[in-house]
Amino acid sequence: MYSIEQARKLADEAGLDLVEISPNAKPPVCKVIDYSKFKYEQKKKQKELKAKAQKVVVKEIRFGPNTDDHDFNFKLNHAKSFLADGAKLKAYVHFVGRTIVFKERGELLLLRFAKELEDNGKVEQMPKLEGKRMILMMAPKPVTKKSKPKKETSEENS
């Protein structure tokens, strides 16, 4: 443990900088290092953390208020694959022109869609009308690790 003056003198003699690493520690921790190299390494660590962070992908599925069963099932299969891949899902019914009078039909369609996808994902936002669109947001179910059942030994069976 050195005094501030001694630490500065050591840093000057070495041609390096005195950098405070942990100011909240008792006593504060300082290192004699090249400051530009220290900043470079910090930036590099931040970049690595950012690269490892998961990026949220939002996939959209569009319905009309008069979507038929075949189209519904076709889009349902796409939604299942999107959720299986870990993407969020934004399903919406787009009302064009006078079809806005069928709001209930659109809501029923989205609720049916959510019910069909119960096993694959969870609803983040219930159907909500925003302008000419009624939107439903879903997120994939988190993957849980299943614990392995204990193997029975022949001793326990006898």
Structure description:
The chain is of the alpha+beta class and 158 residues long. The strands form 2 sheets. A 4-stranded mixed sheet has the order 3-4-6-5, covered by helices on one side. It has a two-stranded antiparallel ribbon with strand order 1-2. 13% of the residues are buried. The longest helix has 18 residues, at 35-52. It folds into 2 domains: 4-52, Ubiquitin-like (UB roll); 58-140, Translation initiation factor 3 (IF-3), C-terminal domain (Translation Initiation Factor IF3). It has 5 helices and 6 strands; from the N terminus they run αββαβαβαββα.
- Specify the biggest β-sheet: 4 strands, mixed
Give the oligomeric state of the chains in this entry, treating copies of one chain as homo and distinct chains as hetero: single chain
Mean pLDDT: 85
Radius of gyration, in Å, reads 29 Å
Keywords:
single chain; two-stranded antiparallel sheet; Ubiquitin-like (UB roll); alpha+beta; Translation Initiation Factor IF3; four-stranded mixed sheet; rod-shaped; 158 residues
